[in-house]
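Sample A.
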Amino acid sequence: MPKTSTMILFSAIFLVFLIYFFTSAPGLGLIDSGELTTAAYTLGIAHPTGYPLYTLTGHLFSYFPFGDVARRMIVFSVLCVAAACGFLLWTGAQLAHRCFGLSPLQSLLCACAGILTFAFSATTWHTAAYAEVYPLTLFLVSVLYFIGFSLLSHGEREMRLWLAYGFVFGLALGNHLTVLWTFPLGVLAFYYGLHEHNGFSRGFVWIALAGILGASIVLFLPIRSHLNPSLDWGNPETPALLWRHLSGWQYQVWMFQKGIVERLGRYFGALPAEFGWGGLGLILLGVFGLARQGMRVLIAFLLVWLVGILYNVNYDIPDIAPYFMPAHAALAIVAVGGAATLWKMIGLRARVAQILIVFCLAFPAISNAVGHLSQANRAGDRFAETFAREVLRTLPSNALVLQSLWDLQSPAIYLQEVEGYRRDVILIDINLMQRRWYVEQLWRYRPEVVANCERERDSFLKELELFEAGQPYEAGRIEQAFVAFHDSLISKNLTRRPVYLRFTAESGHPRIGAGFPAFPGAFFYELGANHEQGELLDIRKIVGHRVKFDDRERFLLAKTLEILRHRRPSSGTMEAMSQQMALLDSILRTRPGPHKGR
């Protein structure tokens, strides 16, 4: 690549990095950010599928000497997405050069048109703003696209490229299973190589071995679990438990649900907001141009896109958007073909057309960047961390809290395990209590909490065993034992510590704690005798200067307002409660901001 083109390539990558860096969040996000950051820092086991590659690479990055651990992991996300865009730019430039015969400089400009449009799409930009596993997945997918395009377009028979492809594919499986839906690219490249080169099939064994070597990263999970880390989701020590963890067994209830046509409609309805109409125009033009100049490349990347969306629309969860990023990256490659087609169509007619074509190529990316800036800019977003810190602050010493709100549990895991904040508070997730491994770990790490509850625990685990073994079970008996187990925890602890409860109905277990008197606290209901209601959450500290909040944040604020309305104001808290309720009312009446996922 000529020096000028190389400078433009690295300038584009650096520009993307800077924009991501200065618009990314300063601390934790909601959903899985706190748990994943903690898993990386402590070398723990995160929720299925465990993400061992993210944990190991993130662990190294979490010790870089800048900011706190949460900010370091966010910068790790920024680097991954920026590097992914770099590989996609490189791939797009190769496509424009090889398939359309453009010069290196022209090819790179066309690549910038398609890939920067993708870089500033709503989902991609938002993914770079928080600590999550998706940025690393996107980086690995972009490497696969680069290698796969070389194999596909050149019919490369160099075994080192195939070994690299197999290894990276296996390694990517150790991060997130969405990489599976990129398989059409490798299959087609292998198919064409098999037909064009005699004896090519003999290399399949070596490619498979390279893939197995990469995928062996998952062995970190049983090895680390055997050492009993503080965060040990699923306890995947045995082959059976490891497979259950890797396959995401507990999340399969959300797969292949009704409403596929509706979710597919939502996906296509969201595409204009993702790519903009200019980006969609480049994609359609790319289909036309590549059908004439690079049919096998077009087929491969469209198949990657098609397989990705057809599988992912079967997954009924709110935060599904990042799952589509590998598919959208494939569309971005096709969009590069559209930019190259436009260059060939306009660039040959007149010199003045060069100005027009540069404008046409720049418009989709610039319009996406400008259009998504306000919702993608999370530079002042400390909501998750501040909310969790405030909730923990208002709880009395050694409090026991039974609740099912993951958007609180996840950042609290980080605050307690990494920062050591309010470790005296015992926050138990009711949803996770439905799993044997969580109950057993509670017995291991918090024996003082579960003392004298062995009979109720054993009764529940006996009923649960049938369900987890896939044998016939009675849901009513499991629920009855589950409720009795929790009620036993409550009654045994009420004499030793303050006990709080909330969100039992949301978890599907409304009878938990129903027989105990409950009095509103700062965010939870205190069980037992009517104690002093204690402190209030500092709402102004939580919301800061923000005026828009997404669906998840609004839910938490609405639940805060709900419990405030149930409190009995005292002479010292009446004015503060009135001010907080007025503030929350005004926030909840405004239009919601961008939705941030699950």
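Sample B.
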Amino acid sequence: MSRQALLVGPWDMVVIGGGITGAGILLEAARRGVRALLVEQRDFAWGTSSRSSKLVHGGLRYLKEGQFGLTRESVHEREHLLQQAAGLVEPQSFAFGDYVGRKPGKRAFLVGLAIYDRMAGQRGRHYFGRDEFVAMAPNVATDGLQGGMVYTDAKTDDARLVLRVLQEARQHGGVAINYMAVESLLREDGEVCGVRLRDGLSGDSHEVRARLVISATGAWADRLRVPAAGEPRAPCGDGAGAANAPRLRPLRGSHLVLPAWRLPLAQAISLMHPADGRPVFAYPWEGITLVGTTDVDHADDLSREAAITRAECDYLMAALRAQFPQLNLSDNDIIATYAGVRPVIDSGKADPSKETRDHALWLEHGLLTVTGGKLTTFRVIALDALKLAATRLQDVPALQGQLTSQPVFAASQPLRYTPALPAGQASRLQGRYGAAAQALVDAAQNGELACIPGTETIWAQLRWAARKEDVCKLEDLLLRRTRIGIQLRGGGIDILPRIRSICQPELGWSDERWAEEHHAYLALWAAHYNLPK
């Protein structure tokens, strides 16, 4: 079906934004019979939802800020995702060294972990003596080390989580289109009644009408909230005046990627930065080691792709050198970098790290804005949005009354035994592709079930993405459908010839088109994923 044909309604709801929040809303709406369309101006998960810290965590550090409700909610969602999205959301243990004079101290940390466990309905040993801790976390600094705490959270591939949620939404009748930008809102008698779209691929314009428009655009949300000239603000869904609704404080979180052999970790290492006491982590992910994150105000134009700054790179490297002094890590060890902008609600705190990670919703003249929140709590955010949407869609029975949580993914048949598939890949593919996992394996050609060296990605994932996953640009394939662009030096430049042989026929691109995409991708990588100057 053509992109234009997909836009044909009627629609109860148009969701703007193809990150985890928009995808979650589309899924929860579609499975309840709502006629829902999602449009994304760039690629699915292009923004924050492919540039996060990849952690599905309960927010242990939020306890220190007194955000017990947010932590409890996050812990419960983490546990649901571990059970219902196995292979995509996986447990990750964290180790935190107990050094003389370091804060938080042993007593405070263990109290926090006891509360954390209680929220999750778990109990476990968390403190280990010096020798045991060094065995569990080799290469950490030992000067002043008395022992350490160990606890468990979870990790994921954030972009693949978005794509799996969208896949599930489509199975329930939801429609999602990437590279379809909202130029403006349509209004009748002061009420939002749809959107004016421009196709980023063809340049064609379209008008789509809907009974409700939901803005799930994250850090970009304030742009759509500007009313038409002379139009008054409408009441928020919670009864507060929309003029008093919170505004966003875009915060940039930047990360480093190092080879696993250069910073080998059996588990994640959580530490407090020696300069300012902020939490920093390093952990194993998809065959490499991730280091993050910063938390700084992002003043750049949001229409431009975010990138790490030299100061942020130096800040993270200083933390690594303090925690792993004997490894002598340097800039030469960095494979790639990436940065994302978080949609944090502005409460006026001087320290960006102390801003709440809770979400907010407000309804203004038929535009429902949903922003803030965390990757972990996307289902809670989606259900809260539908509760407010129900006031506008009163004839949709499934939205009225109590909206109960459902399993995030439908159960699917396990993969058939395939000897050529590397160990652990069956669970990994099942989690990422669900019911499509078997078709992906069956589509593999000779040698394509092997892992791409330096990653946990198999070659067949590239073929499947090119064939079935709305790849419009080479960057979609290498930065979001797979994560090769941040897992390999130069964004995977050394294996681009083989990627071309697999994907160009599937995409139907001419040699000229491939050359254009090749050039554009490498220029993008050099500007936004390379080491800063």
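B remarks: The chain has 16 helices and 17 strands. Residues 511-528 form the longest helix (18 residues).
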